[in-house]
Design a protein that fits this description.
12 helices; binds nicotinamide-adenine-dinucleotide; 3-stranded parallel sheet; single chain; alpha/beta; 6-stranded parallel sheet; Rossmann fold; UDP-galactose 4-epimerase, domain 1
Length: about 325
């Protein structure tokens, strides 16, 4: 049985991952931590205030709960990082080395997500391979490539059991996204249900990889449980469910809400980030090394998102 400390646990991924991990490993075996408090989460299991830029705080929490695993999610996401690059460096890089140092000192398993943001404009755009050119032009991307290399380094140099995934844009309904470039792919569903119209800040024809949260959570757990001998690329595996542009979401939403209309008001910062990312990545190494698979395509995801949002909005 694992005992897991999750950093950045109140964000878009952590909110759902903590619930799922508690179902799998037991409520008391999953310690949610974040820089901010949330009383609703507090009642459901252990939660602590931990700022990842303070390494001793992570260490003390890991010792207090005698954890054997860290899932490190605390991060500043792509669009937010462009408005606060220095903060992004501090949280994404200093936070990561603090967390991984605790894993080294206490001999813990370690997981942290990378992103399709770790690729850049010189990366092949279609069928982007697992191993390829990575020269990102954003602060977020720079921190993600450096993070992948740092995790490889701690595995090779110190034998820390590091594992990671390059996530695409994640779509979910429980917690709002935290300032990424693909946030539009969540917002569009809320606007469709509430107003039957959406103005996309990403331009028509801009395809990016996407994944529904239940598939992302399953991928994390499957990779963490995978036989280490099979893992050729520990940090980090390409994973994605489908590639889509704003008009693809609109086409599927219209099947459920015929009056839905989509128009565009492009945000130059987020558009330039999107333009620097791949259109569609190749996930075959994740499939062959640890049997990565997904359940949701755009049609199935859209049906579920719209039903859940309608239910929650009453
Ligand atoms: P999020 O922005 O929703 O949540 C991040 C959490 O980190 C927040 O709850 C925030 O309070 C916390 N945090 C910020 N600074 C902190 C600090 N100094 N100490 C402790 N906590 C701090 O992010 P997310 O979407 O849940 O992403 C988690 C990870 O997954 C990140 O590494 C991100 O880069 C990666 N990722 C996410 C996506 C996506 O679409 N959501 C895609 C690719 C990769």
């Amino acid at each position: 049985m694992k005992r897991i400390l999750v950093t950045g646990a109140l964000g878009q991924i952590g909110t759902e991952l903590v619930n799922k991990l508690r179902d799998v490993y037991g409520t008391l075996n999953v310690i949610a931590t974040d820089i901010r408090a949330d009383d609703a989460v507090k009642e459901k299991g252990p939660i602590e205030l931990v700022d990842v830029t303070d390494g001793s705080a992570i260490f003390q929490c890991a010792v207090k709960y005698r954890v054997d695993t860290i899932i490190h999610l605390a991060s500043i996401l792509s669009a937010k990082a462009e408005t606060a690059p220095r903060l992004a460096w501090d949280v994404n890089m200093v936070g990561l080395i603090n967390a991984i140092e605790v894993a080294r000192e206490l001999d813990l398993q370690f997981f942290t997500p990378s992103s399709i943001g770790a690729f850049g404009p010189s990366t092949p755009k279609n069928n982007t391979p697992q191993v390829t050119l990575q020269r990102p032009t954003t602060m977020y991307g720079i921190s993600k490539v450096a993070g992948e290399l740092l995790c490889d380094y701690y595995f090779k140099r110190f034998g820390v059991d590091t594992r990671g995934l390059r996530f695409p844009g994640l779509i979910s309904y429980l917690a709002p996204p935290g300032g990424g470039t693909t946030d539009y792919a969540v917002e569009i569903y809320y606007h469709a249900v509430k107003n039957k119209t959406y103005k996309s800040y990403i331009a028509e024809g801009t395809a990016m990889d996407m994944m529904y949260m239940p598939d992302a959570l399953n991928a994390i757990i499957t990779l963490m449980e995978a036989n280490p001998e099979k893992l050729v690329h520990r940090n980090a595996y390409n994973v994605s469910s489908f590639s889509a542009a704003p008009e693809d979401f609109a086409r599927v939403i219209k099947k459920h809400i015929p009056a839905f209309t989509l128009d565009y008001q492009v945000d130059p910062i987020r558009q330039s980030i999107a333009d620097s990312w791949p259109n569609v990545i190749d996930c075959s190494e994740a499939v062959s090394d640890w049997k990565f698979r997904v359940e949701y395509d755009l049609e199935k995801l859209s049906k579920d998102m719209l039903a859940k949002i309608k239910r929650d909005l009453g």
